[in-house]
Amino acid sequence: MGHMRSIVDLMRAMGWSEETIAGVSRLWGKSAARNRGRTHLLLGHLLDTAAVAEVMWDRYVSAALRRRLDDVSGGRGRLWFMWICGIHDCGKACPAFQAVDEVEAAPVRAAGLTWGRLPADRRQRWRHDVAGAALLRPRLVAAWGSAESAAWVWPLVAGHHGTFPSARGLKPQHREVQGRGAAWEEAQRAVVDVFTRAVGFEDLADVRPVGALNKAEQLALSGLIVMADWIASDSEQFAGIADARQVSLAGARRRAEAAWERLGLRGGWSELAVPEEPFAPLTGRLGVSPRASQRELVERAWSMPVPGLMVAEAPMGEGKTKAALAAAEVLAARFGLGGVFVAMPTQATSDPMYEQVLEWVRSFDPDLEAQVALLHGKRRFNPTWRRIWEGDRTVSDGQCAAEDEWSADPFDVYGATEEDADYGMPSWSSAGSPGAREERDSPARWFLGNKRGLLTAFAVGTVDHLLHAATRTRHVMLRFAGLVGKVVVVDEVHAADVYMRQFLLEALRWLGQARVPVVLLSATLPPAQRQALVDAYLSGALSAADVSCPVPKPAGYPCVTVAYALDGMGVAESSRRVVPSWRASVSTRVEWLSDIAGDGKVIASVVGREVAEGGVALVVVNQVDRAQAIYRALAEGGFEGRVRLLHGRLCSAHRAERTEECLRLLGPKAGEGRPERMVVIATQLAEQSFDVDADLLITDLAPVDLLLQRIGRLHRHSGTRRPSAVAEPRVLVTGVVPGAGGRPRFLPASKKIYGEWPLLRAAALVAEAAGPLGGGAAGSGVWSIPADVPDLVARAYGEAEVCPPEWDEGVAREVWRAQEEKREKNAEGFLLTRPREWGAPTLEGLHYAGSRAASEEDLDAVVRDGERSVEAVIVRRSAGGCRAVDGTWIGVHGEVDDETAVDRLLGGTVRLPARLTEAAEAKQSGLVPLPGWAGHPWLRYARALVLEEDGTAVLGADRVSYDDVLGLVVERG
Q1: Angle at 608 between CA 603 and CA 611, to 5 degrees
Q2: Which of 246, 796, 300 is CA-nearest to residue 558?
Q3: Interatomic CA distance for residues 264 and 261, integer angstroms
Q4: 3-class secondary structure for 488-507?
Q5: What span, in angstroms and rounded, lies between the C-alpha atoms of 397 and 137?
Q6: Which of 277, 671, 709, 954 is most buried when burial is the number of CB atoms within 10 A of its CB?
Q7: What residues have CB less than 8 Å from 410, skipping those under 6 apart?
Q8: Secondary structure of residue 386 in the 3-state scheme
Q9: CA nearest 821: which of 501, 551, 526?
Q10: Are 701 and 806 in a shared domain?
Q11: Does 174 lie in the same domain as 142?
Q12: Do residues 343 and 461 lie in contact, with contact meaning Cβ atoms separated by under 8 Å?
């Protein structure tokens, strides 16, 4: 019963000298200064981490990954996982680390482990993660008789602080940090050998794996090592042990069990039962009568022989999301996955999806709702998330969540030597923790910490979280570990622009190699993008840098494409049968409405006329100023009826309220509550995942795939009663006027956002139906929706000319392609791997030039290359002090003690236009936290936009104000 022995007894039984035992018994792993006043010995921490890993194996790690670890370890996966997680800190047995704390260093020196003078600058010292790899690597090669076997293991030790060095980085800058003399060499050997024997292996040779994980699996395993280390480093859960006679694996197991329970940690599905009926995930769990397209997706999930990629293309409103969840259940049950991550294009689309996934997860087990995370920076304003995850907790209890969105990471630099604060994360005690046993069934708030969100069993969030896992940034392995073991669903996959798409393709390569099933959803996916997505996934699945596996043309639309690797070959298949849409195609009349004026009067006049007898009009424009102008013109024209304005310059509270109201009044459950007369004026927020039903659409011209997305809001729900004047679907395309020679002239904002070439192609395709922009011979007048969708999208992005010769399309195409290539090139510097490195079998040198992205905001800037913009909290100056945007009093200096007041204050958060960002970030702008916010976790990093008593503020050359209806108003200087 070796696990019952203390490490001192074990060392004696193994024949180590008393001198070595004395030295090892003093090596510290956690200093008293950082561990609640109690020293924790190094071997104690290694055993704690191994014990946490054992609990994770039983209650967290997916069955699929457990099988892979069993494969490479000769059937001893649990033991091997314990060993690799625990051995991570063996490099602390060196002077460079032991000298970090003078108090802790004294007994180490007294035990005979001495050192010479070390560099005064800690950044020049040998880091213990690198030291661990340097000490362990030659021993593994010698014990295993193979450099190849050790080559994929040592980077797991070297990378546990977030970055993977190259083999060249294992050479110490100063020889003395390695520890001179036989005493240090014996102590270092003893730490490794005693730990190895304590967890259950005979010796280091016995640990040798019989196979190797591929690089993506290594990255996931590395993330789990970090997770185990962080849990075992929790000073509140793992009290320090300074007496080696009290350190044992049995004791570590008791501590790990207690910590796991106390923190409320758990995984998702351990072994999900395979559904007895093929369509039970749809009919029983989701309660739907399956449509043909939904059946097709679920059938393909059943028929795929191995985990792979599924691309579902179906019209807007077809029910793709529910079909994807049903397919995810099938894939998880068949292949041993433990959870699901659903990636959405925006924060606004994530919230309704979170509600849907919550309801779905509850159908498996009501208690699992506490394992569903919402991942975006505004989740605090989602009442359901707050009810489940925060409850009635106080400000200090909420700090852990706050750190996820607001805190910078002062130690997030490759080369940091400190630890625990060294992780760039607050200790658990400073972040608050559930302290009572009765809170065990509440959510595990540990997952709310920085970089940990994807580790929850079920998660819904912006696609950025998936893209972050494909960036060469510190602790990327933690994010990737949160994806492996799940089914990954990406909705509205077409929404990723060319820059973001590089990270999406990189993510698909890694997910393909890790055997993660992925389901991609789109209504308007260009064929070239579909092919690129398939090639990326298969390049990972086949571990090849370049893969070309032509995707057969689908038999029709809707359709499902599947791709997987089998017997070393890539397979790509599309639906071979025609899958009918759940509703017949409808002739949608397409007309021009020439207008690029800035006053909004033309559109306002048409809207008023078109819904004079009733109906719901949706106006979607490409610019906030244009939306505000149209609203003003409608109001000045005396429009009677409801008008709602929805755009990105509304504060958080107003945007959420209006979005909810629109969905309630115009959504699928509106029923008799649907207004007789209403106008919604919106920007691109209404383009996708905005489940409203409009009778008439007026839209600025956009690239065809996005234009079709907007048309997806038109006559969306069956059974809706409509006035006779709008009984047939009709779209008026504006934001364009005829120019010289009939060549379209576009809104400047549209050209800046989308580029001229896609707009020219869209204008040409619209003209085929609506007739020439300047008048003349009429076109067919209609598009058949959804039947015409795939052909329109394919032609819009195809090679064949669609524009009249006088439009000079070729020049615009070359300019657009050059811009796209430049954006692709810009993304390469942040991708997790460069193309020439994809074939490398190990993680060595992965962080050859790590990103300095410190905060979530900085990381968002890595995966999105649009103009940088910042957020600010609106504060109104009034006599004697300040008020929130809704009038709530917040004191003279912004002091806020009441959480309700904090919510109201943060509800005034607004994103500033990109053109104001430079002025906003200037020190003299005044956009800094108010003095009274310094001690508040949600406010201390927030910028205050203080509106003076006249309701305005000056930013650079512009004057800004906030109107409760119009939102942020910018008056050009």
Answers
A1: 120
A2: 300
A3: 5
A4: EEECCHHHCCHHHHHHHHHH
A5: 42
A6: 709
A7: 424, 854
A8: helix
A9: 501
A10: yes
A11: yes
A12: yes
- Domain annotation covers residue 835: no
* SS3 per residue for 609-663: HHCCCCEEEEEECCCHHHHHHHHHHHHHCCCCCEEEEECCCCCHHHHHHHHHHHH
| In a shared domain, residues 210 and 250 | yes
Question: From CA 643, how far away is CA 664, in angstroms rounded?
Answer: 15
Helix (H, G, I), strand (E, B) or coil at 229: helix
What is the distance, to the nearest Å, from the Cα of residue 587 to the centroid of all Cα atoms in its chain?
A: 38
CATH code of 614's domain: 3.40.50.300
Give the end of a domain, one of 518, 540, 574: 574
Closest CA to 920 of 891, 942, 894: 942
Cβ atoms of 645 and 966 within 8 Å: the answer is yes
Q: Please say whether the beta carbons of 385 and 374 come within 8 A.
A: yes
| 211-267 pLDDT tens trace | 999 999 999 999 999 999 999 998 788 989 999 999 999 999 999 999 999 998 989
| Domain extent at residue 694 | 586-785+799-811
Is the pLDDT score of 434 beyond 60?
no
Distance from C-alpha of 678 to C-alpha of 723, rounded to nearest angstrom? 12
pLDDT for the residue 391: 66
CA distance 719 to 670: 11
The pTM (predicted TM-score) of the whole model is: 0.90
Question: Confidence band (pLDDT; 50, 70, 90) for 433?
Answer: very low
Cα of 171 vs its chain's centroid, Å: 36
pLDDT surpasses 60 at 405: no
Which token pair is 900? 């309700």
pLDDT digits (tens, 9 = 90+) for 577-590: 889 888 888 899 99
CB-side neighbour CA atoms (13 Å) of 31: 20
User: Same structural domain for residues 569 and 590?
Assistant: no
Q: Is residue 950 in some structural domain?
A: yes
CATH code at position 203? 1.10.3210.30
Tell me the one-letter amino acid at 560.
V
Q: Sign (positive/negative) of CA torsion 480, 482, 485, 489?
A: negative
- H or E element that contains 533: helix 527-541
Q: Which amino acid is at 485?
A: G
Q: Does 207 map to a domain? A: yes
User: pLDDT for 476-496, tens place per residue?
Assistant: 999 999 999 999 999 999 988
* Mean pLDDT, the chain, integer: 87
- Would you say 194 and 5 are in contact if contact means Cβ atoms under 8 Å apart? no
Tokens found for residue 417: 């030597």
| Sheet order of strands, 615-620 included | 642-646, 677-682, 615-620, 696-700, 730-734, 586-592, 782-785
Confidence category of residue 120, pLDDT binned at 50, 70, 90:
low
Using CB atoms within 10 Å of the CB of residue 582, give its burial: 0 to 12 exposed, 13 to 18 middle, 19+ buried: middle
Compute CA 118 distance to the chain's CA centroid, rounded to the nearest angstrom: 41
Helix (H, G, I), strand (E, B) or coil at 133: helix
DSSP reduced 3-state for 417: coil
Q: Picking from 388-402, 636-650, 773-787, 958-972, which range would have the lowest pLDDT averaged per residue?
A: 388-402
Contact 959, 973 (CB under 8 A): yes
Q: Do residue 530 and residue 640 come from a single domain?
A: no
Asked whether the beta carbons of 793 and 526 are under 8 A apart, the reply is yes
DSSP letters along 832-844, please?
A: SS-GGGTT-SS-T
Residue 499 in domain: yes
Asked if residue 601 and residue 551 are part of one domain, the reply reads no
Q: Is the peptide bond before 366 cis (omega within 30 degrees of 0)?
A: no
Q: Tell me, yes or no, whether 89 and 205 share the same domain.
A: yes
Number of domains in the chain: 4
User: What's the token pair of residue 455?
Assistant: 């580790």
**Coil vs helix vs strand at 408:** coil
- Residues of the chain above pLDDT 90, percent: 61
CB 116 within 8 Å of CB 159:
no
- Amino acid letter at 517? P
- Upstream peptide bond of 723 is cis (omega within 30 degrees of 0): no
Asked if 544 and 597 sit in the same domain, the reply is no
